[in-house]
Write a structure and sequence with these properties.
This protein is of the alpha+beta class. It is 60% helix and 15% strand.
Length: 431
């Protein structure tokens, strides 16, 4: 490629040397030999390449370098983003004397880890898309390099076969001084073109190497992100298992059995007070609507949709029962449906969401007003998909099964309240 490297220097003095050669030499040339048309055909292969392939600019190279720096920074941050399980467990130890605070703190830790898992899964999808895009960029650049190389190879071969003498022969066969200047200007453009093509080839080679570097880095990031998801999932399962064991241990410990029963009853009383407060607020709101001659939601008597996409069994039914760990007879105000974590929870009937929140006893819960003082409550969810004020239709997904709150396993606690009191959910699920 020496002819390309020399072309820049050549073109600076080309015209002066050519004029001197013309004025000092007289040649007779046959018509058509060394014509401009013939010269144009000589460079035609490179011209086709230039017009059919987009150029790699310094801006595109800079952009690719910035993308690599961003990926390296992201990779460094990924190493420090994992949850510190030992630190979390150490902090929880200080809360174990107060079960309510302990459960609330642990559920908060679980929510943080769930959020990290969701974010990491989103990153995985982004990385897979980025890898696909970078692979396309690399393949396009490699195809361009192949075309450039083929064009330059043909050009070099022709230049080698002709030698530098063809330039002077072409110029000295000019039919007039004006023709000579046109030929000289064209030859200068050819040399400038050769130089430009060489610079573009080098830039494309640099771009290819940057694409390869970015592709390798993105693949490393993808693998590490997947490993982080597995690690966070393990942290999540470890904390859930610890929570279940600690609640059972606390409630079955003979030394604090009386205190555990007292706390449980206080929790249920607090839960009922919260729900009654919500009902009272809704009733007052409806009274104001009626007074202003507005319309209010009414229950039309339809059968409820089963509130779960799937479930394994009824783990605890509605009514009086012996508490599984406290060992005392207690009223169970709903039906517990055991189901895998993440199972979709459905709105049992049309209504308006009056609460979508968290409490230490109910965990993540949703409460829906169906009209005529009829409410449904869905407890212990791992995720909530609706907000207060949302209008839902029978069968809408409102949450996902979990084990938040005072719970020792993944399940949905489903309650129905009518006229301020709990009633059997089976009355509405199968009339």
């Amino acid at each position: 490629m020496n002819f390309i490297r020399r072309s820049k220097n050549k073109q600076n003095t080309f015209k002066n040397r050519a004029v001197r050669a013309l004025t000092g030499t007289v040649l007779v040339c046959a018509a058509g030999i060394f014509s401009l048309g013939g010269l144009q055909r000589l460079v035609e292969p490179m011209q086709v390449s230039a017009t059919s392939i987009s150029s790699i600019t310094s801006d595109s190279i800079k952009e690719k370098e910035d993308q690599i720096k961003a990926a390296e920074k992201e990779k460094e941050g990924l190493k420090n983003s994992l949850s510190d399980l030992q630190k979390i467990k150490k902090e929880l130890e200080a809360q174990k004397s107060d079960l309510k605070k302990y459960v609330a703190q642990l559920d908060s830790n679980l929510a943080d880890i769930e959020a990290k898992i969701t974010d990491l899964n989103a990153r995985i999808a982004e990385k897979e898309a980025a890898i696909e895009e970078t692979q396309k960029e690399l393949e396009a650049a490699q195809e361009k390099e192949k075309t450039q190389k083929e064009s330059m190879t043909r050009r070099i071969k022709l230049m080698y076969e002709k030698g530098d003498s063809y330039i002077w022969e072409t110029l000295l066969c000019s039919t007039s001084f004006g023709d000579f200047l046109n030929r000289a200007d064209f030859m200068e453009q050819v040399m400038s073109y050769d130089h430009r093509m060489w610079e573009e080839y080098k830039a494309n080679r640099q771009y290819i190497e940057l694409c390869k570097q970015e592709l390798d880095l993105e693949k490393e990031l993808l693998d590490e992100t997947k490993e982080n998801v597995e690690a966070e999932q393990s942290n999540l399962e470890s904390l859930i298992a610890q929570k279940n064991n600690d609640i059972i241990k606390y409630e079955t410990d003979i030394s604090n059995k009386a205190q555990a029963i007292k706390e449980y009853e206080a929790d249920i009383a607090e839960q009922n007070e919260l729900i009654e407060t919500l009902e009272a607020a809704i009733a007052e709101e409806k009274r104001k609507i009626i007074e202003s001659n507005g319309t209010v939601l009414t229950y039309d008597g339809g059968v409820f949709k089963f509130p779960l996409a799937s479930y394994t069994r009824v783990s605890d039914d509605y009514g009086m029962r012996i508490h599984p760990t406290l060992g005392v007879e207690q009223f169970h105000n709903g039906v517990d449906f055991a189901a895998p974590k993440g199972t979709a929870i459905y709105a049992a009937y049309d209504g308006v969401v009056v609460a979508s929140a968290y409490s230490a006893t109910m965990g993540n819960y949703v409460m829906i007003d169906h009209g005529d003082s009829l409410y449904t409550i869905y407890m212990h969810a791992s995720a909530l998909y609706v907000s207060k004020g949302d209008v839902v239709i029978r069968g809408d997904t409102i949450a996902a099964v979990g084990s938040t709150g005072r719970s020792t396993g993944n399940h949905l606690h489903f309650s129905v309240r009518k006229d301020g009191a709990y009633v059997s959910p089976w009355n509405y699920l199968s009339q």
